[in-house]
Structure formats: C-alpha cells, structure tokens
Amino acid sequence: MAAIAADLQQAGLWLTESKRVAALTGAGISAESGVPTFRGKDGLWQGFKATDLATPQAFARDPKLVWNFYNWRRELLAPLQPNPAHKALIRLEEKIPQFSLITQNIDDLHRRAGSKNLVELHGNIWMVRCTRCHLVSRNEEVPLPELPACEECGGLLRPHVVWFGEQLDPTILDKAVAAIRSCDTMLVIGTSALVQPAASLVIVAKEQGARVVEINLEPTPYSHKLDLALQGKAGVLLPQLVERLE
Ligand code: BJW
Ligand code: ZN
User: Fold this and answer.
1) d(CA 13, CA 25)
2) Of 48, 66, 103, 192, which alpha carbon lies 20 to 30 A from 178's?
3) pLDDT per residue as tens digits for the range 129-146
4) What is the pTM of this model?
C-alpha cells in the first residue's frame, strides 16, 4: 500500500510538471461500468470470442451473426454510465494546458462523461456505415434490424468501427501520433497493449522522451519498459492520482 502511495505521488508530480499530457485508454477503463473486456474471461459471446467476430471476414461470412453480436453490445451499453475513472480524466483535462485522450474503446463512455479532446481510434458503436455508398451516420436505435439497410441507397449497413486487418482512419491516427509526439507525460490505462497500431503509441512516447505511466489490473508486455506501472483498478487509482493535482 505504501509503495502504491509513493508511486501515485511520483506520477502526480510528473503530471503537475507537464504542460502536455496524452492518455491512451482501453477496455479496462470501462470494466467498472459493466463493459466486458476483450481478452478477459468475459470476452465471450454465445461461445464466440469477441475478437473473432470483430473482423471483415466474419461479417462477409455471416453479417446476421455479427450484427446480433453488435446489437447485444448496443443493448448492454445503452444504459451504462461513465465510472470514476472516466470522470477523473475530465478533471485532468481541466487542469492540464494541453490534454489529449486517445481511446481504443467504441463504447462512447468518454464522450458521455464529457471528454472534449477525444480521439476514437477504433470508431464508435453508435455510428454505422453503408457498405455500398459508404455514408457514415449516427444511429442509436436499439436493437437495429438483423440486417439494417442504408436510408440513402438500401445497401447493407455495418458498424463504423475498425476490425482486425482494417486500416485505421489515417487522419485520426495522425492526430493520435501528433498528441503522443508532443506530450511530456503519457498515461496508459486499462489496455492489454497487444493490438497495433495503438500499442506502438507507447513506444513512440518513450522514444520521444515522455514519461509513461501505466494503470492496469495486471502487468502488460510494456510494464517493465515504462517509468511507472501502477497495478489496480482504474476507477480507484485514477481519481487518487488526479487528487494529487488538486
Ligand atoms: C483493467 C480493469 C480495471 C481490466 N482497471 N485495468 C503488427 C504486428 C502484428 C500484427 C499486426 C501489426 N500491425 C497490425 C497488426 C494486425 C492487428 C493486430 O494488432 N493484431 C495483434 C492482436 C497482434 N491490427 C490491426 O489489424 C489493426 N489494423 C491495422 O493495423 O491496419 C494495418 C495492418 C493490417 C494488417 C496487418 C498489418 C497492418 C486494426 C485493429 C482493430 C482492433 N479492433 C478491435 C475491435 C473494435 C470494434 C469492437 O469493439 O467491436 O478493437 S479488437 C479489440 O482490441 C478492440 C479493442 O479496442 C482492442 C484493444 O483491446 P484492449 O482495449 O486492450 O482490451 P483487452 O481486453 O485486451 O485488455 C483490457 C485490459 O484492461 C487488460 O490488460 C486488463 O488487465 C485491464 N483491466 N479491468 C484497470 N478495472
Ligand atoms: Zn448507402
């Protein structure tokens, strides 16, 4: 306990000294809101691994199955609320002159909490895209029909999210890289740091001399390379960290 208090003190000092801070979040930050993570034991839906359904191949093979999976997640997410970790990042954004929040999550909880300078690397579950005319729109209907159709052209809609093997939107990725390249301190919160290119942002930050602080329930492949790895729940540790600046 004393060790974590000292680490929080140190991380708080780095944040206080920083003009530019970037945070990268993953599924773990939303776990305490009730969102299942991908690689945890809750990352299964009807016997399928979530990561096996989040692919263009799965959608091409069986779009109904993939839409059933996303409809289930839309139903699950609709009533969920941001937790103390999402809210602590709002207070951090108010305190740091230049703060960027980069999330891999599609759950909309950072936006609902009120984060302003937000980069959604993998899209948003409430956005859909037409597979024929490529129109992107917001759609909060729950549930959507099993095979939802585009209002403009009748084409099959798909979730406007980034699946394995798909390119991230280059403008969005550039924005994330720019934020990391200029940050003094980076926070890496609740991500297994296994999925590229998001995971490389941690390396970019280290290479350009930023201090990198991880908050995770468990060690990750990067923990030993970072300046501090705080082990525990984001909803407990992040508010305590931000308090150090208050
Ligand atoms: C807590 C907690 C609490 C729990 N408090 N902590 C280079 C090498 C090898 C492969 C590749 C490569 N470059 C690209 C690839 C391929 C692939 C990839 O990275 N594969 C790896 C798995 C090896 N990447 C891609 O395909 C990407 N595209 C791309 O790079 O295009 C160019 C290209 C293509 C092909 C080849 C080469 C280049 C696209 C990646 C898109 C990822 N999409 C998903 C689905 C989004 C839609 C949806 O949600 O349905 O994004 S997959 C899934 O993983 C989702 C997540 O955003 C992402 C990351 O997961 P995350 O957030 O880290 O979750 P978990 O569950 O893994 O971890 C949770 C963590 O929280 C754990 O550590 C817990 O301990 C912790 N935790 N409770 C604190 N309370
Ligand atoms: Zn269309």
Assistant:
1) 21
2) 192
3) 999 999 999 999 999 999
4) 0.97
